[in-house]
Amino acid sequence: MEVRARAPGKIILAGEHAVVHGSTAMAAAIDLYTYVSLRFPTPADNDDTLKLNLKDMDLEFSWPVGRIKEAFPELGSFNVSSPASCSLEVTKAIAALVEEQNIPEVKIGLASGVSAFLWLYISIHGCKPAKATVTSELPLGSGLGSSAALCVALSAALLSLSDSVKLDFDHQGWQIFGDSELDLVNKWAFEGEKIIHGKPSGIDNTVSTYGNMIKFRSGELTLIKTNMPLKMLITNTKVGRNTKALVASVSERTLRHPTAMAAVFNAVDSISNEMATIIQSPVSDDLSITEKEEKLEELMEMNQGLLQCMGVSHASIETVLRTTLKFKLSSKLTGAGGGGCVLTLLPTLLSGTVVDKVIADLESCGFQCLIAGIGGKGMEISFSGSS
C-alpha cells in the first residue's frame, strides 16, 4: 500500500513584524501544496534501505537500515503518541547520517530538511525500510511555509501507517484526520520545524495542518473560518532575505523611535483585527463581496505603508507594487520582507485578460508568479494499493 499526504503552504495576510512587538497578525493557508508519498517494500522487493526522493531536485538519498540501527541503538524508546524534541545526542547522530549522503554544496540548504525527515521517520517507524517521495508546488525559501508543509505532510504520511491513527484505507480520494489526530500531526510537524529553524513560532505548521486562517497574538493562536472566497496573485521576487536581520532592524528602529513605532504597531493591530472581522462576517450581510474586497484592498495598502515605515521593503517589492498599481490592484509584502513574496488581491470581478497582462509584466522583470486560493483546506491524506 502507498499513502499520499498533502499539506498547504501559507501566507501572512497582515501583521508581520508587528506581531513580534505584541500586535495581532493573520495567516492563511494557500492551495499550493507539498506532497509526500510513502510505501513500505514487500518481501519480494528484497529492499533493506530507507530512501528519500526529492523529485523536484532530482536527488535521492538512501540509508541501509543496519546503518540506522547502528546510529540509534535505543530505537525502541520513542513514544509516537507523545512527540518529544530531538536531543543533542540524536541530533549529532542524524547529522552524521546526512553528512554521509554528500549533498552537493549548491544544495546544502536541503540538509536541515533531510535531517527533519530522518528524525520524524525514525521516531515514528524506527528502522523499517521504506521509500518516501517529495514533490512541491511551493518555491523554497520564499516565505510561503514550504518547510512546514513538508513537515506536516511527512508527519501525516508517517502517522497514517502507524498504530497511532485509525483511518479508512478503502476510502476513495482525499480524507482528513480527526481533531485529536490533527493535533498529533501538528505536534510532530512542529518538532520537525524545530530541526529546520531552531525556534519556529508554530504558526506555519498550524496553518498547514488545519487550513483556513489563523489569528495570532502574543503566542496565542485562534483558528478562523473564512466566509468569503479570496484569490491572490503571489509574486516571488526570488530575492533572498535574512529574516533574523530584518527582525533585528525593526527592533533597533523601535529603540530609536519608541513612540512613533508604538503607533505603527497599534495601527497594524487594528488592521489585522478589522481584516479578520471582514473575512469572518456572513456572506448574506449588508456588504457585498465586492465591497468587502475593496475594504481588504485598502487594509492591505495601509499595512504595506506601515511595513515601509518599519524599513522592511525592498527595491524588488517596490517594483511589484508599481506594476500592480498600474492595473489598480492592491499589493503588500508577505513575511519578512527584504525580498521574498508579494501578495496582490485578485477581485472576483477582475477579468482573466487583466490578470494575464499583470503576470506578463511581472514575469518580464524576472519574477515568478503563482495564483492561489486563500483560506482553504489543511492537510489531507489518500491511499492506493491493497491494504
Quick summary of this structure?
With 387 residues, the chain is of the alpha+beta class. The chain is 41% helix and 22% strand.
What can you tell me about this protein's structure?
Keywords: ATP-binding, Cytoplasm, Kinase, Lipid biosynthesis, Lipid metabolism, Magnesium, Metal-binding, Nucleotide-binding, Steroid biosynthesis, Steroid metabolism, Sterol biosynthesis, Sterol metabolism, Transferase. It comes from Cinchona calisaya. The chain has 387 residues and is an alpha+beta fold. It folds into 2 domains: 232 residues, Ribosomal Protein S5, domain 2 (2-Layer Sandwich), CATH 3.30.230.10; 143 residues, Alpha-Beta Plaits, CATH 3.30.70. The protein is 41% helix and 22% strand. β3 and β4 form a beta hairpin. The chain is globular, with a radius of gyration of 22 Å.
Comma- or semicolon-separated keywords:
387 residues; Ribosomal Protein S5, domain 2; Alpha-Beta Plaits; 2 domains; 22% strand
Strand content: 15-25%
Radius of gyration: 22 Å
Query: Could you tell me the number of beta strands?
Result: 12
CATH architecture descriptor name of the largest domain: 2-Layer Sandwich
Structural class call reads: alpha+beta
CATH topology of the largest domain: Ribosomal Protein S5, domain 2
The CATH class assignment of the largest domain is Alpha Beta
Total number of domains: 2
Helix fraction, binned, reads: 40-55%
Query: Could you state the order of secondary-structure elements as H and E?
Result: EEEEHHHEHHHEEEHHHHEEHEE
EC number: 2.7.1.36
Catalytic activity: (R)-mevalonate + ATP = (R)-5-phosphomevalonate + ADP + H(+)
Subcellular location: Cytoplasm
GO molecular function: ATP binding; metal ion binding; mevalonate kinase activity
